[in-house]
């Protein structure tokens, strides 16, 4: 039986029957004939009851109501009747939710499950979920990946409270100690604290740890302070982190021979590891004999304030410390040169090639753990230390990982091109915002084996990242080719042609800036300080005058960063910004 027949047979109010037929699509004339009234009457009902204004939900609800009443009043119900009643009841409930949604606009009114999804407290996903299986994998990878000299460090770490290691460059010390600290934290639950000259340098530990865990287990560690499942925390701090005073744990101090005011820092840092269960590890490449850490290394600092009978005298030669020795001051010392690293299985170096690339003096300092006698240097190590800052903490306007790290503020570029056998150097220098203010070295880069076209292209890339106001280029050697290419996209590039007078002017300007405390660079860039320290006075070929030399020949390239910096500083007159060499324009 179809719906029309059903409705027709029902003894309904003609007005309701007419409405039902109208909503089914009947014409008014046909409705009037079917119901038995005049067409004008149906038109009147339609207008008064606003049949056209009702929405589809109201029309369906009315039809369902009519059908349900018929089924409910039926005396002899069949199974299909009960099913239809149940179905229509669910439709009534659904229509009620639609009606409520039309008033509130809440999706949970349409779907009650949405309201219940937050009824129970959510279980937060576990952060840094390193399992026992992951830990076993990390320990195995750590032990399998050590060179022999690193195994020696590992054994000393099991027995010694204080390890003090003087090391060659690039032998994987930071990499090793990052992994060692992670394994120690997992196995013992002790906190691990990494302290470096700058936060950028400290975060190198974090990078090594995160990469190690990701490569071995697939787990991605999160957090500036890494919290492990056993409660241990790995903290990465710069030297200006006064919050470090509230921390405790095993301590790692990286490149401590380059940290300014080291004794002050040592007093603060050692307090974090004062409990007997914690150990301290200091490791660094050598800097200058005038550094405060040198006296700690030689034992002289231990003697201060003690009776003469308790004074110690240590043999800190390589022969005495190559195997690692615990001194009477309780510090375990070791010297690891690049030759020791090679003998210990580190085959990453070509020693003969390095001897060609660096002068004998520089090779001894960089790779054979010999300290610099800065008494012969033109630049004072103490003054250079004052220039070393924690850039991440102090320079809010510099974002090193942004597309434009310094925004639209002006910078000066100093470039020292590569000569046959040495490296090229670029320095990005931020000039002072006010006369007499500080110059800041934002970036530095060194490149080896690049022809002059590639060197020029690198300069072009920097002009796209920074608002470059000045470019100073040494035009000797390959510098002429670099300068000509740079002139094509930066006609304002300045050529610096070397002579005794020019070199003297560059050095005097740098001395004035550094000694007056007007230069700043990130403390992790100790290669900048080393470059300035390598510049010494020397006689001119005639023997009648004095000039300055370092890193200007094929055998050495260690001073290229210093010369690049001086090329940028040369844009400010030797006397600085004065009323006679500066001007301003006022627009009305």
UniProtKB/TrEMBL annotation:
UniProt xrefs under Pfam families: Terminase_5 (PF06056), Terminase_6C (PF17289), Terminase_6N (PF03237)
Keywords: Viral release from host cell
Record-annotated Terminase large subunit gp17-like C-terminal domain positions: 414-571
Keyword RNA-binding: no
Region Disordered: start-end pairs: 101-129
Segments crossing the lipid bilayer: none
Domain Terminase ATPase subunit N-terminal: 13-69
Record field: compositional bias (Polar residues): 101-116
Stated name of the protein: Oxidoreductase
Organism, as annotated: Chromobacterium amazonense
């Amino acid at each position: 039986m179809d719906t029309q027949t059903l409705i027709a047979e029902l003894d309904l109010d003609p007005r309701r029957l007419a409405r039902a037929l109208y909503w089914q699509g009947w014409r008014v004339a046909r409705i009037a004939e079917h119901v038995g009234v005049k067409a004008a009457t149906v038109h009147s009902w339609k207008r008064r009851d606003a049949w056209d204004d009702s929405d589809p939900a109201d029309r369906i609800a009315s039809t369902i109501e009519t059908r349900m009443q018929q089924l409910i009043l039926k005396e002899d119900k069949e199974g299909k009747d009960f099913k239809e009643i149940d179905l229509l009841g669910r439709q009534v409930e659904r229509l009620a939710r639609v009606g409520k949604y039309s008033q509130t606009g809440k999706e949970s009114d349409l779907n009650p499950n949405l309201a219940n999804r937050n009824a129970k407290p959510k279980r937060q996903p576990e952060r840094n979920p390193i399992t026992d299986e992951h830990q076993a994998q990390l320990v195995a990878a750590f032990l399998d990946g050590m060179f022999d000299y690193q195994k020696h460090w590992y054994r000393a770490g099991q027995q010694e409270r204080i390890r003090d290691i003087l090391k060659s460059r690039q032998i994987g010390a930071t990499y090793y100690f990052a992994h060692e600290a992670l394994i120690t934290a997992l196995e013992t639950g002790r906190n691990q604290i990494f302290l470096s000259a700058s936060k950028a340098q400290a975060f190198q530990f974090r990078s090594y740890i995160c990469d190690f865990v990701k490569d071995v287990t697939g787990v991605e560690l999160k957090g500036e302070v890494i919290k492990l499942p056993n409660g241990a925390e790995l903290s990465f701090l710069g030297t200006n982190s006064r919050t470090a005073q509230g921390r405790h744990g095993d301590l790692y101090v990286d490149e401590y021979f380059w940290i300014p005011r080291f004794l002050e820092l040592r007093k603060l840092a050692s307090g974090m590891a004062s409990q007997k269960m914690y150990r301290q590890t200091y490791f660094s490449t050598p800097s200058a004999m005038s550094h405060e850490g040198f006296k700690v290394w030689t034992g002289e600092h231990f003697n201060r304030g003690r009776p003469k009978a308790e004074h110690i005298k240590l043999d800190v030669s390589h022969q005495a410390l190559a195997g690692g020795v615990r001194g009477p001051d309780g510090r375990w010392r070791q010297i690891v040169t690049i030759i020791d690293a090679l003998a210990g299985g580190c085959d990453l170096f070509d020693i003969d090639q390095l001897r060609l690339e660096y002068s004998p003096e520089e090779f001894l300092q960089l790779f054979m753990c010999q300290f610099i006698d800065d008494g012969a240097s033109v630049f004072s190590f103490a003054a250079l230390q004052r220039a070393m800052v924690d850039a991440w903490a102090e320079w809010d306007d510099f974002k090193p990982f942004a597309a434009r790290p310094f925004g639209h503020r002006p910078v000066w570029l100093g470039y020292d091109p590569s000569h046959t056998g040495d490296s090229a150097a670029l320095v990005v220098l931020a000039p002072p915002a006010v006369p007499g203010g500080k110059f800041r070295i934002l970036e530095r880069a060194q490149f080896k084996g690049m022809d002059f076209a590639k060197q020029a292209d690198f300069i072009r890339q920097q002009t796209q990242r920074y608002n470059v106001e000045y470019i100073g280029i040494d035009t000797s050697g390959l510098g002429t080719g670099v300068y000509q290419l740079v002139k094509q996209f930066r006609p304002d590039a300045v050529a610096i042609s070397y002579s005794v007078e020019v070199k003297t002017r560059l050095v005097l300007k740098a001395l004035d800036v550094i000694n007056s405390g007007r230069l700043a660079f990130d403390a992790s860039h100790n290669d900048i300080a080393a470059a300035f320290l390598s510049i010494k006075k020397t006689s001119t070929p005639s023997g009648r005058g004095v000039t300055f030399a370092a890193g200007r020949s094929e055998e050495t390239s260690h001073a290229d960063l210093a010369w690049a910096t001086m090329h940028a500083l040369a844009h400010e007159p030797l006397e600085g910004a004065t009323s006679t060499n500066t001007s301003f324009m006022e627009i009305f």
